[in-house]
Design a protein that fits this description.
This protein is of the alpha/beta class and about 250 residues long. About 45% of the residues lie in helices and about 15% in strands. The mean pLDDT is about 95.
Length: about 250
């Protein structure tokens, strides 16, 4: 406990799913947490469950103005920001790669990729001034071992893994560590999107590709996030840690 004591973290997409689980674990470990989500009601609801150590902010991570406002509000509440978790992300239903609508492709790029650029644009200078920090990108096993029918989602997460390594090498002299987590499909609102439909048959088919035989949970991802954002991982940067039950072996 208290592995994140006196650290302040922004977690995007923290109103539900992996982000909510990470927020809960961070507060439990002593951090102050900004629960950021495009669904401000969900963010407020999650922050309320976490108590005085959490603060809700509505944010569209694909918008430069919205990200700038989030960072300004977070700094006004907390003073300094030590940790950024880029968790917000979207997927698309399984389909042939040449049939995805252009608008949907653009939205995937904006939420899954551009958001990483925008949060860095508005937070890296602050972390430099404060003498360092930690950035954690929630990528996917799809970026390492793609599934057919999810080409553009997979590609966006592969980009995030490459961005993590590029950011890590550039920001190391500033004592800013950058890592990623690659979760396998999990019990979150995105699961149905990835499967196309949530039935016992589709779940069984997905599970055949996971050697340990179960989906990930928010608690699984949160445990890895706590480690990577804590001082226990002070020499760890540029990694993309698979939390996947063996899927990428």
């Amino acid at each position: 406990m208290n592995r994140l004591f006196e650290k302040t973290a922004i977690i995007t997409g923290a109103g539900s799913g992996f982000g909510a689980g990470i927020a809960e674990a961070f507060v439990r470990e002593g951090a102050r947490v900004i629960v950021a989500d495009i669904d401000e009601v969900a963010a407020q609801r999650q922050a309320a469950t976490l108590g005085a150590g959490a603060h809700a902010i509505g944010c569209d991570v694909s918008s430069d103005a919205s990200v700038a406002a989030m960072v300004a509000a977070a700094r006004a509440w907390a003073g300094r920001i030590d940790v950024l978790v880029n968790n917000a992300g979207i997927g698309h239903r399984p389909q042939p790669l040449d049939t995805l609508a252009e608008a949907e492709f653009d939205r995937i790029g904006a939420v899954n990729m551009k958001s990483v650029y925008l949060t860095a644009r508005h937070l890296v200078a602050h972390m430099r001034t404060e003498g360092g920090g930690t950035i954690l990108n929630i990528a996917s096993t799809g970026g390492r071992s793609p599934r057919a029918g999810l080409a553009w989602y997979n590609a966006s997460k592969g980009w995030m893994i490459a961005a993590t390594r590029a950011m890590a090498i550039e920001l190391a002299p500033d004592q800013i560590r950058v890592n990623a987590i690659n979760p396998v499909a999990g019990e979150t609102p995105l699961l149905k999107t990835f499967m196309g439909e949530d039935t016992p048959e589709t779940r069984a088919r997905f599970l055949t590709s996971i050697p340990l035989g179960r989906f990930s949970t928010p608690a699984d991802i949160a445990a890895a996030a706590v480690y990577l954002c804590s001082d226990e991982a002070s020499l760890v940067t540029g990694v993309a840690l698979e939390v996947d039950g063996g899927r990428c072996i």
